[in-house]
Amino acid sequence: MTIQKIMAPFLKKDTGLAAFDAAAALADRFSAHLDVVYMRPPITVRQFGSAYYPIAVDYVESTIDALNERADQQAADLKELYEARCAKYEIGFCDAADHTESKGPTARWSDVDPRTSYDFAKRARVADMAVVAKSAADTPQDEIELIEELVFQSGRPVLITPVGRKDVAFPGTIMIAWDGGCEAARAIAAAMPILKEARLVIVTSVGEIKSGGEPVDHVATYLGLHGVHATTLAARPDKGETAEEAFLRYADIKDADLIVMGAYSHSRWREVIWGGFTRHLLRASEIPLLMAH
User: How far is CA 36 from CA 6, 44, 98, 144, 225, in A?
Assistant: First the structure.
């Protein structure tokens, strides 16, 4: 098992560049292909309100033309940033069908037409991993919704990196959040190619393992069978500290470069309510997260 294709949305300058930098580090290590996707925001008459009278047709049409021109310029500007990053990291251009490991990391830019029905989860289903970025503080709702879509609808692991993180590199020390649950097990399986390349993996539990769940030392033994150098840590929250706060404190102490964890939720149709531990780490962690559900 390896990583050969990585999907990375590129929607805004800050999050697009941060996601690309993280994806490029993985692509370089695994000689993988980057599927970099820009999707234009749809422009509809509804944006102009409910009143749409014949006398206003010329105004609406001219405004839509102006918005389309602005979208064209934004797409061109973002593609220029993407091409500059490819040059910086010496990433070649080719289609996924033409990619081979011997070519090293490659990439292809896609500009998706908003008039077609589309979401990023469907695109990610034909990749080994998706990589996105989140703003460092007060993550906007649109970024949270994109992460939700990918984590819960793609069936693929999602790497989430904070904007502004300067030491984007292949992970050396990885912390696994282990609670004995199915989501955590899936996250470990999805992250296996990266875990095998890490210098150190720390399987960490905070408080009690779920009823009947395997202890952290059994997880470390399992990882050892795959050639992963793993140790264990049974963390305990300080007085007044939550489990998620304790986990992040230990991750800082251990200088973790990446956190691997299961994403827990209650979902009802398209409405997703994150579990408390997942939600806190997503919003508060300054360390990249690799999530699977």
Answer: 8, 25, 16, 19, 35
Say how far apart CA 244 and CA 278 lie, in whole Å. Answer: 8
What's the token pair of residue 146?
Answer: 């994109």
User: Structurally, what CATH architecture does the domain formed by 173-292 represent?
Assistant: 3-Layer(aba) Sandwich (3.40)
89: burial class by Cβ within 10 Å (0-12, 13-18, 19+)? middle
- Residue pLDDT, tens place only, 170-217: 789 999 999 999 999 999 999 999 999 999 999 999 988 877 889 999
**Domain 5-45+73-162: homologous superfamily in CATH:** HUPs (3.40.50.620)
d(CA 137, CA 267): 25
The sign of the dihedral angle between the CA atoms of 117, 20, 290, 148 is negative
Crossing angle of helices 276-284/243-253, nearest 10°? 40
Distance (Å, whole) CA 144 – CA 47 = 23
Q: Is residue 50 over pLDDT 60?
A: no
pLDDT in tens, 212-242: 889 999 999 999 999 999 999 999 999 999 9
- Whether the full predicted model's pTM is greater than 0.85, yes or no, is yes
Place of tokens 């140790």: 231
pLDDT, one tens digit per residue, over 71-105 is: 889 999 999 999 999 999 999 999 999 999 999 99
The set of residues, in sequence order, having a beta carbon less than 8 Å from that of 147 and lying 6+ positions away, is 132, 134, 158, 160, 282
Contact (Cβ atoms closer than 8 angstroms) between residue 19 and residue 92? no
Residue extents of the structural domains in the chain: 5-45+73-162, 173-292
